[in-house]
User: Which sequence fits this backbone?
């Protein structure tokens, strides 16, 4: 039997031979290099695992404490807490309903504003057509008056334009000169003038509107066509067209005195 002293002596001699290291153990520098090369990856994993575990434990602890707190409350306190939560839920539902109502009102207001804007633009376009400040196109008729002997006076041209307007003409031009709201017809030295511009025969009166109605207005017994045909050497013809072009006024009308109501002095 080996005595305890003998065994301790043998271990002491092995310790001296190996320099105080276990047999087969790496040197101090090799161990440090190995620790540096292998320690970075596993260390990060360990740290991340520890953080996640801490958060899970904290959450479980919080839930547990909240459950324990509810269990510790009396029935009266629990009823009060439930009532408070119910009131808060009702308040949130009311707020959601108010926000939905505001959204609906905003959408309706946006639609109304869009409709008002479209109506205003349509009215502006209509006024521009009536004022003659824009060129227009559309169906209508053309009245051609051939007057080789100069028998047609400005009054006959005025009657023709007025009859076409009464029949619903939306735009009128004579010899490609637009007739506006402030246009004037006159006669000088036997020639008809439109806004001081002389007109030469044959007179070509273009009107945009319902062709059937316009033509019917000119053919009224005793009306424009009968008056023109009664003049010496005059021949008048009406032709319908699916598309006619009427130019804008060469110069837009300028109002020196009249102002819109409420526009200031």
Assistant:
């Amino acid at each position: 039997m080996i005595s305890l002293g003998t065994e301790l002596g043998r271990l002491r001699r092995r310790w001296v031979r190996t320099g105080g290291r276990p047999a087969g153990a790496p040197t101090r520098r090799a161990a440090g290099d190995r620790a540096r090369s292998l320690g970075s990856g596993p260390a990060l994993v360990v740290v991340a695992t520890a953080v996640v575990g801490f958060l899970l434990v904290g959450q479980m602890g919080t839930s547990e404490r909240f459950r324990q707190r509810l269990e510790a409350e009396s029935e009266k306190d629990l009823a009060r807490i439930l009532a408070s939560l119910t009131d808060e839920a009702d308040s949130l539902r009311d707020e959601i309903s108010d926000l939905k109502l505001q959204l609906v009102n905003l959408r309706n207001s946006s639609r109304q504003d869009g409709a008002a804007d479209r109506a205003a633009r349509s009215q502006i376009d209509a006024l521009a057509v009536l004022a003659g400040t824009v060129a227009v196109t559309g169906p209508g008729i053309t009245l051609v008056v051939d007057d080789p002997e100069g028998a047609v006076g400005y009054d006959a041209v005025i009657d023709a334009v007025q009859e076409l307007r009464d029949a619903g003409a939306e735009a009128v031009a004579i010899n490609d000169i637009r007739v506006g709201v402030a246009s004037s017809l006159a006669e000088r030295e036997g020639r008809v003038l439109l806004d001081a511009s002389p007109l030469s025969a044959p007179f070509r009166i273009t009107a945009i509107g319902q062709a059937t109605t316009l033509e019917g207005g000119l053919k009224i017994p005793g009306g424009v066509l009968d008056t023109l045909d009664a003049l010496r050497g005059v021949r008048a013809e009406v032709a319908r067209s699916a598309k006619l072009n009427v130019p804008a006024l060469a110069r837009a009308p300028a109002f020196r005195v009249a102002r819109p109501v409420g526009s200031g002095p």
